[in-house]
From TrEMBL:
The keyword Nucleotidyltransferase does not apply. Residues 1-30 form the signal peptide. It comes from Pseudomonas pohangensis. PROSITE patterns: SULFATASE_1. This is Arylsulfatase. Belongs to the sulfatase family. InterPro entries: Alkaline_phosphatase_core_sf, Sulfatase, Sulfatase_CS, Sulfatase_N. Residues 84-522 form the Sulfatase N-terminal domain. The keyword Signal applies. Transmembrane segments: none annotated. Gene3D superfamilies: 3.30.1120.10, Alkaline Phosphatase, subunit A (3.40.720.10). One of its GO terms (molecular function) is metal ion binding. Keywords: Calcium, Hydrolase, Metal-binding, Signal.
Amino acid sequence: MIRQKWRRSGTGLSLALAALLAHLSPMASADQIEGTLGATDAKRVLSGKQLPPPAIPFGGVIKDDALNSTPWWPPTVVPPKGAPNVLLIMTDDAGFAVPSTFGGVIPTPTMDRIAANGLRYNRMFSTSLCSPTRAAMITGRNHHSVGFGVIAEQATGYPGYDSVIGTDNATIGRILRDNGYATSWFGKDHNTPTYQASQAGPFTQWPTGMGFDYFYGFVGGDANQWGPNLFRNTTQIYPWIGHEGTLKMDRSDPKAKVWPVTGKEPSWNLITAMADDALDWMYRIHQSDPDQPIFINYVPGSSHAPHHPTKEWVDKIHAMHLFDDGYQKLRERIFANQKKLGVIPQDEELTPWPDDVLTPWDKLSPEAQKLFIRQVEVFAAYVAYNDHEIGRVIQGFEDLGKLDNTLIIYQNGDNGTSAEGGPDGTFSEVAFFNGVQVPIDVQMKYYDAWGTEFTYNHMSAGWSWAFDTPFDWFKQNASRLGGINQNMVIQWPARIKDKGALREQFMHVIDVVPTILEATGIKAPEVVDGIKQKPIEGTSFLYTFDAKNAKEPSRHKTQYFEMMGQWALYHEGWLLSTKVDRAPWDAFGAANTDPLNNQVFQLYDLSKNFNQSEDIAAQHPDKVKQMRAMFLEEAKKYQVLPLDASVGARVASPRPSLTAGHSELTYTRPMTGLPQGDAPYLLNTSYTVTADITVPEEGNAEGMIVTSGGRFAGWGFYLLKGKPVFTWNLLNLEWVKWQGQEALAPGRHVLEFDFKYDGLGVGTMAYNNFSGIGRSGTGTLKVDGKVVETRKMEKTLPIILQWDESFDIGQDTITGINDADYLPPFPLTAKFNKLTIKIDRPQLSKADIEKMEKALKAVEAGRE
């Protein structure tokens, strides 16, 4: 029924309205109209079945001339009256014990304030990994249901793993936008397929293509916070230019224990910049239309590696001496804090320290202890800095007078704390993703630089174990609560009156969308863009906002978990888990080929054992059998099959790309910003890079011809003081360089770098065999057909370049390949004529395949 406030304006309008009502579709006729239909200020509240809503037929009168006609305007779509603003916040790679709100030692006063004025939740669950949790949170559907069984960089050609959120899974951004909200996304977008992240598009899987009016952030898993691959909507921007500091790292003495850093840090950092931009957007919307509610998806890079806080925050944390007694004492202190705050049961017991996995603190060398304290202080500074900037955004709502009717959901972490730095941590996470553990003495050289633009740093996994207290294990471990049990706080002053209370119902990130929809009074659409939608799979937890429901049993009864072959099933308080068989830093070993069955099964009663410490599988074999069968049914229902326990192999496995299927690529104009997912992939292969350039008459040309990657891994072909140079940066640990001895004379030249690879390539990884990757090869540099240098590389990068850097022609964006040679943008002063890249990938012979199949069978026989 249409609600109509009539103005008496003549028979013509009445007849037009009568005709209009007769022709309205059932969906449109269920909408509510506020004001006078056809007037410029009329509003339309949708029934919610179809998006975009069907058009209301023109209700005015059209004659031959305007004087005798009656104008009519379609009503503006608005949300239901009283619908709140929504601020959805989720931090990155942060376990249960990170924030002070839940017993941690890192100060998070913003989260503390939200908790004091709202509610605390200690049983919010994630998927154990970045992209999957984020896809589930914005769609209200399980991560496999929307193509994100793993991160986008590991996508494979199965529906549950292809990294594509289907058109039948409209996001919360799309639903709210089409119902009259202004929608935005700030920070991390890890839900765009790697092969659709370039300026060639399509942009349907970018935030702006998924219902968010405005996007300011980076595309990918993580980013250098001092100089990220940053976008405004779909345009790459470089706002830090002009804010660069004068930091310098002195590597002149290779034997120095620490390479000193001098100078002033940059005045720009993304953590502050995105808060600034969010505030600008909020104020712009408010000043343009004060009545329009807003939805912000605020997902900063903190505290994912690289940990890049400002020196101010590092100094604040260092002065607090929070970590001087080591990670085991920290864990005990946090556990006591948690009991004191009442966020865990008083009778819970702390699980033993895993001596077989992580070295006890008192067994570390003094040098390792010093390094590890530096690592964790920078991490803690990053967390505290981020929480402070989140507080500025929340203050913006208060300054605008909107805080009372703003629903704030602040979730700590999209998964447990990351251990991807390994037991010793690392000065560069890019090294981890190439299977390289960096020794303590090498990391110590970066001690002064930790957290600056010269590191892509991560901390020791010992700290990560402590930051997941009272649970164990880490991010990636979907079968352990340390990987999946997050916490969150919620504030909505107009609705939540039970301030500071704790809620303990089981919840999952797929429950966020239905909760927001219920809070706003907006229904999940049945059809979007003519496409029937999959049902929302989450369960609203709005009922927990009321004190009378504080102890009501969870309405979310059953939930599966699966990540890279490790899995679990929750059902009405019971949790069936597979025993951890792989540490997160062990990404390159042979994978379990039967992860559904080849497992050690554990069983827990979470209603009696909060932190998953008492395995009762032996006492309940029938329950184990029942829940194994239930998991298989859930797996079939939500596109979890086929199970795949591989990790590193999936990063380098073939997937769509703009360069896929091309063995020869030609470029005739300079260009920058092509992301790694669509750039020529020159790892584990033979290739030739040929550049046709013209040196100007004045000579001494220099600059970047072509580059891919950056300071922490990549390659570049450039002119240095007129001499051609080809450099491979091997994880910022070694630089292999080919260089001509003479500067190029004025005129046209053809420069060629030819590389012959010695290994069998990525095809070997299908057989859990990494011996064919990262092998040696011989490079030859030629000028005008003449060989100027030949050199053998004893090893090459096996898996990935620096992912937040791009493929650039004619200059170098963000960071350079070799700081000793040049600093970006290093524009090419010679004329660029043409660039050709030829790729000759190794082909496996029948004998190669038979040999690897035999080796795989031997591995499986050993497992049995």
